[in-house]
Amino acid sequence: MNKAINKDQKLGDVISIFPDASKIFNEIKLDFCCGGHDNLGAALKEKGLNVDLFVEKLNDEYANFLESSKEYKDWRKAEPMELVNHVINTHHKYTFETLKEIDGLLLKILKVHFYNHGEELLKLHRLFANLKAELEEHLVKEEKNVFPLIEDYFENKNENKRIKLVQLIESLEAEHDGAGNILKEMEELTRDFTVPEGACTTFKLVYNKLSELEKDLFTHIHKENSILFKMI
């Protein structure tokens, strides 16, 4: 019997087939968003994992996923602007709101816990400020420039518009990589967003929100890099 997932597929394609694979990839720190174009087998080898066993596990989990009848939207089959509107109303909305919330909370714990955890929190505060600025500017550029151009392209296709979009998309993907690199620095600094011993409730809340923001960004970037941009 043919398996839905094989080692020669790209990471982004695996997530498109089986969205819950994102949880499995997150557990082993496999970058399926900015690294969505990477080959599954090669990525697993780089992690020192048994490729065949891991792929078998993915297929078993995928079979369980299908049997569960869990509701799932295959965005590869959607119209481009349906996916664009979903990205704006779901991921962009969440990102703007969460960045604002974390910003205030992070400053609060920096003030309260400066003497005990100042070194870590100062670095984290600086990294988060960079991430916030990059993401906010990036999302605005998408909403005010790139997404309207995508809509125009699909309404009135021509090669000049496609070439312009491809150039803009290359720039967006580079910005995705930049945000991903900042997240990796934050992850390393905070021991995968693990709070220091004895941390207060707000401290835990900030690190949890940073972890959830990272997971949502992975899915968000995957939908753009591996699905939307491939439609152009």
Write the layout of secondary structure elements.
Blueprint: H1 11-17, H2 21-27, H3 40-46, H4 51-67, H5 80-112, H6 114-155, H7 159-189, H8 201-228
Helix pairs in contact: 1-8, 3-4, 5-6, 5-8, 6-7, 7-8
Structure description:
The chain is mainly α. It folds into two domains: 11-67, no CATH class; 76-231. It has eight helices and no strands. It is globular and about 60 Å long. The mean pLDDT is 94.
Helix run count? 8
Number of strands: 0
The ordered string of helix (H) and strand (E) elements is: HHHHHHHH
> Could you give the distance between the termini?
34 Å
Q: How does the helix and strand content classify structurally?
A: mainly alpha
Helical content (DSSP H or I, runs of 4+): over 70%
Radius of gyration: 19 Å
For the sheet with most strands, the description reads: none
Mean pLDDT: 94
Number of domains: 2
Low-confidence parts, pLDDT < 50 over ≥5 residues? none
Shape, principal axes of CA atoms? globular
Beta content comes to: under 5%
Q: What does this entry show, briefly?
A:
This protein has 232 residues and is an all-alpha fold.
Key features of this structure:
single chain; 232 residues; 74% helix; metal-binding; RIC_family
